[in-house]
Design goal:
Number of helices: 3
Order of helices and strands: EEEHEEHHE
Shape: globular
Largest sheet: 3 strands, antiparallel
Strand order of the largest sheet: 1-2-3
CATH superfamily of the largest domain: K homology (KH) domain
Structural class: alpha+beta
CATH architecture of the largest domain: 2-Layer Sandwich
Length: 134
């Protein structure tokens, strides 16, 4: 279990510390919400967490078949809803560096939809996955 500490630094900036490793993440409020937009915003991190989780769970799911998805890229687009301010939609475009047979594609796509971050998102947040194979 990971433990974190998060500090308010002022000027709508926070610093999160991962206690096990000492790694830090700085967030800023986005420019469209009174912030500097100099770092990821908290809602950016939600979308980034989704993409990172999808990649990790897909890699785990196909590793037992001897498949390595290294080089896979995810493009993420976040759409905010203005009132109440929240993430309305996350578009996730997953680009694989090589093609796979239909069995591996099914495993990858099922894994993406099953990642813990995706399962944790509210049903008020629309998530769209698109899978691109060369």
């Amino acid at each position: 279990m990971n433990t974190f500490e998060v500090y308010y630094e002022g000027n709508l900036r926070t610093k999160a510390v991962h206690l096990d490793s000492g790694e830090t993440i700085i967030t800023d409020a986005p420019k469209d919400n009174h912030g500097l937009g100099a770092n990821f915003s908290p809602t950016d991190l939600v979308c980034t967490a989704l993409a990172s989780c999808v990649l990790t769970i897909m890699a785990i799911a196909v590793a037992k078949n001897g498949i390595d998805i290294k080089g896979t890229k995810v493009d993420v687009k976040k759409t905010m809803q203005p009132s109440p301010r929240m993430i309305a939609q996350i578009d996730v475009l997953i680009k694989f560096p090589k093609d796979y047979d239909s069995k591996i594609k099914r495993i990858l796509e099922h894994a993406a939809h099953s990642c813990p971050v995706h399962r944790s998102l509210s049903d008020k947040t629309n998530t769209n996955f698109e899978f691109i194979y060369p």
